[in-house]
């Protein structure tokens, strides 16, 4: 019985959808995103791999009748490259903090209508403003985390400082760093005391000189697979994203996640609506759904990243909420710094400095 | 030869689709990148085509040149090894019984049908510290120690093999990159060599052997000169993709093994500097054109030699 009704509904909504679709396509060209009312019942979500709950998309569809299609990107650069020549049809995207800033600089993001996202009340007040998007006019935090050291406990003796990574031969040949030029220069600068976002050529050079001097101690520059190198015993210390180390920690008790005392990088991935989104109304609906307590809890529990959603955390148990690799203690977090998008000029300085590191 | 004029429709129907393909999917994108290489960045996504040559001048920075030199060295090393491994393999296939030939060629081609990323990860699983090569060596190491212990000579084993098994560091260095490049590009070498050797008139070899030349001398004085066009083709189509590889050095190389494609990739992605990336790509392209021109010149010279001889 209920099946029959649902089928009937589906068929009818499909018919509506196809009519509305033709209308929306037309509206997209002629009236822009203002033509909310007759939107096709679809939302195109462009996300990282393994970064959504197991049932989230289906649940959203059952609740709202809006079909959620997900496509995947591998990194921010791919996301940015896909959108830089115009939006190919995505409604909701998940750029990291500095890329929100970069996309804002390129005027690629639609402002959010918070009256359509009442669930922002669930968010930790810490995330209601951000340097990369002042006033959070264009983005809400999806998940956040840190970068730090994945270490093999039995092969190291309590690393607490970046010194062991950047200026010591204690773990020579057993260290992997990440192929993330800006972040690596930032980490070396944190150790040198010039902060995550050095701006002068002298500070950038000092950081890269440090890395060049230490280069013989690095075994590999990992392509975001540092956790595999650590898990397979190839290295004993690796710079990695918290979530990646968290995943191998579940399988190997001998692996730990450490944020050195000089501090590290804190990051956030954000839900945004790109300019030219064909279904902006559904995009808001979708973002609101993700910020729902129940839906947010299911996602966080599945992907094991830190959620900014307080209401969702209240529904989850201690093994998630008290996991120090997911939620580092406040005093550690206090020392972490955000990466800041500093404009194309400084990006180029850092890129050239990184080339110098690779060539040395 | 029939004139295209007489059979216009045939020539059109055969000629237009590939021409369209070539123009739309090769020449136009390539021209776009070429134009970008004379551009200037304006803001985050804007590129102004100002016909500046700054991007090319920037490429002659010592760091970039060093990485270029490194790429050349790795690609040349891989090509030379491919040649020395590929020639015997191609000869082996040519002289194999004909029912085996297809199967042997299939064996050369088969890895091609697997995604490069998967093959590279497989290579990592073989070479890493706790990989199959080291597992095998460790197994032999353990057996030898047991054997020595059996004869009460455990001390000698320790003296020979060390206190305990030391795993070989096979990954994350230049050798790993060269091995990876050889592994990936060997078919590019074997196939043109096979094609050249297959066409070779075997009576020349018999004559050479009958007239008293040894096998090596026959190989060097008869086979190599006759197969030279194939050898040159093999070298060029191995060298060009090897020079532009970026997956292999990124995944197998150490901190010192960056190749130029890694830098180019970064310009299109994290560095967000398409004009500079385009200029670097085209520098690579000019080297490729140079290599192809060299081949054309040598083929011409080889041809005229043949006529005179």
TrEMBL record, chain A:
GO terms for cellular component: periplasmic space. It comes from the Bacteria. Keywords: Periplasm, Signal, Transport. Residues 1-27 form the signal peptide. Pfam families: SBP_bac_8 (PF13416). One of its GO terms (molecular function) is polyamine binding. Its main location: periplasm. Required for the activity of the bacterial periplasmic transport system of putrescine. Belongs to the bacterial solute-binding protein PotD/PotF family. This is Putrescine-binding periplasmic protein.
Automatic annotation (TrEMBL), chain B:
GO terms for biological process: transmembrane transport. GO terms for cellular component: plasma membrane. It is found in: Cell membrane. It holds the Pfam family BPD_transp_1. The chain crosses the membrane at residues 20-39, 72-96, 102-126, 146-165, 177-197, 218-243, 274-294. Residues 68-295 form the ABC transmembrane type-1 domain. CDD domains: TM_PBP2. Its main location: membrane. Keywords: Cell membrane, Membrane, Transmembrane, Transmembrane helix, Transport. It is a multi-pass membrane protein. Belongs to the binding-protein-dependent transport system permease family. CysTW subfamily. PANTHER family: INNER MEMBRANE ABC TRANSPORTER PERMEASE PROTEIN YDCU-RELATED, INNER MEMBRANE ABC TRANSPORTER PERMEASE PROTEIN YDCU-RELATED-RELATED. This is ABC transporter permease. It comes from Pacificispira spongiicola.
């Amino acid at each position: 019985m209920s099946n029959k009704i649902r089928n009937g509904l589906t068929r009818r909504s499909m018919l509506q959808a196809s009519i509305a679709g033709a209308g929306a396509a037309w509206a997209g060209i002629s009236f822009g995103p203002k033509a909310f009312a007759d939107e096709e019942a679809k939302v195109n979500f462009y996300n990282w791999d393994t970064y959504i709950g197991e049932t989230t998309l289906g649940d959203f569809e059952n609740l709202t009748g809006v079909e959620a299609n997900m496509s995947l990107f591998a990194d921010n650069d791919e996301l940015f490259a896909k959108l830089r020549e115009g939006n190919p049809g995505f409604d909701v995207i998940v750029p990291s903090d500095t890329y929100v800033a970069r996309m804002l600089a390129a005027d690629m993001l639609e402002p959010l209508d918070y009256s359509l996202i009442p669930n922002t009340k669930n968010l930790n007040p810490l995330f209601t403003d951000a340097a990369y998007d002042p006033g959070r006019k264009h983005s809400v935090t999806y998940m956040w985390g840190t970068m730090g050291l994945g270490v093999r406990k039995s092969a190291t003796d309590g690393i607490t400082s970046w010194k062991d990574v950047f200026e010591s031969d204690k773990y020579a040949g057993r260290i992997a760093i990440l192929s993330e030029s800006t972040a690596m220069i930032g980490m070396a600068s944190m150790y040198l005391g010039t902060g995550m976002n050095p701006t002068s050529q002298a500070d950038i050079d000092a950081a890269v000189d440090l890395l060049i001097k230490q280069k013989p101690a690095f075994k590999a520059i990992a392509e975001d697979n540092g956790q595999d190198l650590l898990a397979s015993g190839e290295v004993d210390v690796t710079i990695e994203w918290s979530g990646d180390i968290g995943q191998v920690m579940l399988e190997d008790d001998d692996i730990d996640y450490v944020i050195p005392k000089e501090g590290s990088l804190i990051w956030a991935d954000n839900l945004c609506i790109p300019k030219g989104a064909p279904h902006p109304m559904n995009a808001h609906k979708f973002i609101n759904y993700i910020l729902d307590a129940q839906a947010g809890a299911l996602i966080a529990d599945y992907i094991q990243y830190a959620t900014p959603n307080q209401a969702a955390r209240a529904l989850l148990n201690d093994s998630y909420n008290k996991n120090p690799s997911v939620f580092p203690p406040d005093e550690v977090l206090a020392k972490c710094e955000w990466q800041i998008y500093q404009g194309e000029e400084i990006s180029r300085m850092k890129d050239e400095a990184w080339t110098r590191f690779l060539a040395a | 030869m029939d004139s295209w004029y007489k059979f216009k429709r045939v020539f059109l129907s055969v000629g237009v689709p590939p021409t369209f393909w070539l123009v739309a999917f090769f020449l136009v994108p390539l021209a776009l990148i070429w134009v970008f290489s004379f551009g200037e960045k304006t803001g985050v996504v804007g590129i102004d085509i100002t016909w500046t040559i700054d991007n090319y001048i920037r490429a002659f920075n010592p760091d970039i040149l060093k990485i270029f030199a490194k790429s050349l060295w790795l690609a040349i090393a891989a090509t030379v090894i491919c040649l020395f491994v590929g020639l015997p393999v191609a000869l082996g296939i040519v002289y194999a019984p004909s029912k085996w030939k297809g199967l042997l060629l299939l064996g050369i081609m088969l890895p091609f049908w697997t995604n490069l990323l998967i093959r590279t990860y497989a290579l990592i699983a073989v070479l890493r510290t706790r990989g199959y090569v080291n597992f095998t060596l460790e197994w032999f190491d353990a057996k030898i120690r047991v054997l020595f212990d059996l004869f009460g000579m455990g001390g000698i084993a320790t003296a020979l093999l060390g206190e305990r098994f030391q795993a070989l560091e096979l990954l994350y260095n230049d050798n790993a990159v060269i091995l990876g490049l050889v592994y990936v590009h060997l078919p590019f070498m074997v196939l043109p060599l096979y094609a050249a050797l297959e066409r070779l008139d075997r009576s020349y070899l018999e004559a050479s052997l009958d007239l008293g030349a040894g096998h090596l001398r026959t190989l060097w004085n008869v086979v190599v000169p006759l197969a030279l066009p194939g050898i040159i083709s093999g070298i060029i189509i191995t060298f060009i993709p090897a020079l532009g590889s970026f997956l292999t050095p990124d995944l197998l190389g150490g901190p010192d093994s960056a190749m130029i494609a890694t830098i180019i990739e970064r310009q299109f992605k994290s560095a967000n500097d398409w004009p500079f990336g385009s200029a670097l790509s085209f520098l690579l392209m000019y080297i490729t054109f140079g290599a192809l021109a060299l081949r054309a010149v040598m083929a011409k010279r080889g041809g005229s030699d043949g006529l005179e001889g």
